[in-house]
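Ticket #4471: structure output looks truncated?

Reporter: J.K.
Steps to reproduce: submitted the chain below (232 residues) through the standard prediction queue, then opened the result file.
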Amino acid sequence: MDDLWRGLTEAIRLLATGDRDVWEVVLLSLRVSLSATAVSLLLGVPIGAVLALSRFPGRALLVGLVHTGMGLPPVSIGLIVSILLWRSGPLGSLRLLYSPTAMVVAQAIIATPIVAGLTLAAVQGLDPRLRLQLLALGASPVQATWWLLREARLPLIAAVIAGFGAVISEVGAAMMVGGNIKGETRVLTTATVLEVGRGNFDVAVALTVVLLVLTYGVNLALTALQQRRRPF
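Returned output as attached by the reporter:
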């Protein structure tokens, strides 16, 4: 209990005094996580919509891959991305390993199946007659899909929340592809692991509190957007 209390006190002190190292880690955590979430939306929403609205050979296999990806261990993604970006790997010439970009790539791969799976479920949950009605009224397939996504926007915001939650709290892949380099790739989760390894439990608790506050703030904003009442 003493460590928890000291951690809470330290968290308040670090935030109140504007500790440069802490705010640097916080801002990098936000930048990496929000970027990865945005990439996962750009990829996951179209994938989920196509799988929900199309029927083609191999669709069941792809849906199974998406569902499997939703539960794939992040450390496995980190290992695969590290091998690809290693100097002797196929993408080593890009020199992205141990950089924020590599962290964004790994975290986007983690979040994309989550967003795609939830988008698939959200669109499939709509009345199938709605798409037929839109097409009958002259909408193109792309326009009909857009309106269906608008109709399913509330569960889609839940997909955003789930995707962001998966990447902001991720540590294994971030450590493997980022290297936890101070001032460059150190984020809240990897900094917490580092402080625990050093035995600085009060600092680790403080960083955890900051992470929880940050996560709650972003999710609160997304929830407020989701729960906003539409004018009649």
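Triage note (M.O.): checked the attachment and the full token line is present. The CA atoms of residues 157 and 225 lie 8 Å apart.
Status: closed, working as intended.
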